[in-house]
Amino acid sequence: MTAFAVDDPLDRRPGLAKPEGLLRTAAGSIPPSGLVLLGILSVQLGAGFAKELFAALPPSAVVFLRIVAGALIMGSIARPRLRGLAWRSWAVGLGFGVILAVMNLSFYEALSRLPMGIATAIEFLGPLGVAVAASRRRIDLLWVGLAGAGVVLLAPWGGAGGAAAVSWVGIGFAVLAGACWAGYILLATAAGRHFPGTTGLSFAMIVSTLMIAPVGITTGGTDLLRPEVLLIGLGVGLLSSVIPYSLELQALRKMPKHVFGILMSLEPAVAALVGVLLLSEILHLQQWAAIICIVAASLGSTRLARRRE
């Protein structure tokens, strides 16, 4: 993700990697910054609808629906060729798929225990850590300090309750999701060297589906076959993967990558706003301050990455 100084700005979310004609035509009349913001909004709306689906299905079953939708779409666009793959390519593809599955599952588990803005902000620590680790400037310690302050402000030290209560278990899942996101960035780069085009992502989606299927089917049971559940699951897949990928690809063809990264850094704040409007997740002033700290750390890291370039 460009916001965190990685090569591929689309290594953020699993999903579609090529825009469809209809969406491409519609996006042609929208400014690139608007496309990025629409993509962010789409992702967070998808997360919001997924969270509402938790009333009918456990998070693991919702993750299964999302990954299956992504795998079907990716498989129809970039079918991976398994014949003749070297063992190193198999290792990279399998590792990519496993980290993708764990990342989605841990984030949805966090989402079921935390407000959207908080879960997304904590998850952002993963790619931010990758960006800072790649730097050797002392100023980057400031962004680490800001991010750390955000986590301290989010932690439920006093055990406060309320609509926006935060649990240590939820924080743990969000941290795990962030760590997996960091691993996802590194493995996505490796997959780009071992697989042509976007077939590495397609291969990883298939592996993730096979990995999540036993858990998702067991926990979801026959509820997975309910038409309304399938419809919402498809909507989550489209909002979380297909639409944002398409919009981001269009935006990247028209704007500098560092501008794209700065806009993507706003995602935790957008997640918090969607949580308030869609799910009535009212955050305390301290929690808003924490999210602002993490967004500021991301913005600062992105701007310095641009200067280094």
From TrEMBL:
Which positions fall inside the EamA domain? 169-300
List the SUPFAM superfamilies.
Multidrug resistance efflux transporter EmrE
Q: One Pfam family for this entry, by name?
A: EamA
Q: How does it sit in the membrane?
A: Multi-pass membrane protein
One cellular component GO annotation, for this chain's record?
membrane
Q: Which UniProt keywords apply?
A: Membrane, Transmembrane, Transmembrane helix
Q: Does the keyword Lipoprotein apply?
A: no
Membrane-crossing residues? 21-41, 53-73, 85-108, 114-134, 141-159, 165-187, 199-217, 229-247, 259-279, 285-305
**Compartments, record wording:** Membrane
Q: Does the keyword Transmembrane apply?
A: yes
- Tell me, in one coarse class, where this protein mainly resides: membrane
The UniProt family comment states: Belongs to the EamA transporter family.
Name of protein: Inner membrane transporter RhtA
